[in-house]
Amino acid sequence: MFCKNIYLFTLFIFLFNFSAGELENNCRNENNEIDNSDLSILISPLMSSEMIREICIYWKNSNLESGDVFKLYKGNPNTTNAQVIFKFQPDAIHGFKKTGISSDFISTSQLTFKDECLNYYVSWVRNDTIKKTSCLSTHPNWMSKRKNSIGNLKMREVFIPGTHDSAAYNKFQNPKTELIIDKYTITQDEDVLGQLIYGARYLDIRVGRYPNSDEIFWGNHGPIRIVPLRDVIRDVKIFLDNTDEIVIFDIQEFPVGFQSLAAHYQLTNYLQEQFDGYYLDRPVHVWGTSLEDIWSTGRRLIISYDYSNVVASRASVWPQVEQQWGNVRTVSALYRHLNKIETQAADELHHYNRLSQPRAAMAQLTPTTFDVIFNRLGGLRKMAENVDINITEWYSDEWQHTANIVAVDFIKATGIVETAIKWNDKRASGC
Ligand SMILES: *[C@@H]1O[C@H](CO)[C@@H](O)[C@H](O)[C@H]1NC(C)=O
Ligand SMILES: *[C@@H]1O[C@H](CO)[C@@H](O)[C@H](O)[C@H]1NC(C)=O
Ligand SMILES: *[C@@H]1O[C@H](CO)[C@@H](O)[C@H](O)[C@H]1NC(C)=O
Hints:
Structural class: alpha/beta
Shape: globular
Mean pLDDT: 91
Largest sheet: 8 strands, parallel
Strand content: 15-25%
Helix content: 25-40%
Bound molecules: 2-acetamido-2-deoxy-beta-D-glucopyranose
Number of helices: 13
Number of strands: 18
Strand order of the largest sheet: 15-14-13-9-8-18-17-16
Oligomer: single chain
């Protein structure tokens, strides 16, 4: 395509004096009203003694008419045994509805390596006719299915969903009141294999080292150890064994036990041994390597490492992804932070970036120490609920052209995976 990136796109506008609006409308017109409407099932990160995994419906649809209804089904509405479990008439073209219904617990071992719908469907219904249906879905193969359209790109040029503090998970089955410590350390409600199957390809891993414990390396959140690193590694290998996807395993911060260079070498040795046969040695062009070149090596794991002394001396690790932190406490401040980095990224598309280092927009609020001590923000779940809807909207409507990695808390509470997939396709077709 002649305008596959913003740079060429801008040049095109400049030369032919088109407005971006016109070109975008042309892109829109290719599709119809149905493709252009958003409808999705999100799972709330909130948990109380009565409720867990509350189903929420998100929509944005300028073609809604009065009398239109949204119906939530258990079972595929095309089949006779589908059951309507919730319905409502939207009162705006754009919104978010909590249903009060808790979705069933699905253990990771029940998930498959095929893209699938997980039993909950939502339909846009007019006069008893379904106009559009979406489901709660997994995306274990989204990248490899698009080898033809994204293969020639570098990691920096792809819209990649990721998780923040990926190893800080706890997969609760039943509702429960969380302890204050959990409220401020747990960022994910799927284990790492689950996160990958739902669509994340960027993992933000914080490692703690405990030389006197049985398990030396742990996935941490700050000073708190959450799960043995061994479990995280096992999940990544299971995923790679069963798919043709590429995963970035980004080791960031070293919150406990890394005072010496020897400690870092102990970790890299451990990773090399555990991931033997999986990881790709840093290539000559490093992050400038295209996805198809990565695929052609048969090694689909990139281990990146947030410490340049180690990168300089070990070929097994790549320089880290640039994490872009706002350290903000409110939704509007997060908007300003993300808007700043995405605007900057749009400007940088005009320049040749030799290093092509990917960047991760860290799309969450950050509590201060006093927020934690006085529980002022209600915990990470509450904070995630406040921003997750906005993130999806911002990245569908404002920053879809520049987005690179977007790392979120509680991945199923956002529509970031579907948004990334949709915009990778649109970008590939010149939009
Ligand atoms: C329902 O059936 C129609 C027609 O066969 C098909 O296009 C659509 O994808 C099906 N929807 C679901 C959710 O399976
Ligand atoms: C709804 O569908 C019925 C039967 O197909 C049709 O007779 C009626 O005119 C439709 N109503 C509207 C408002 O479109
Ligand atoms: C975030 O989303 C909510 C719900 O759609 C909306 O009311 C609010 O204005 C949004 N905030 C920002 C800063 O965009």
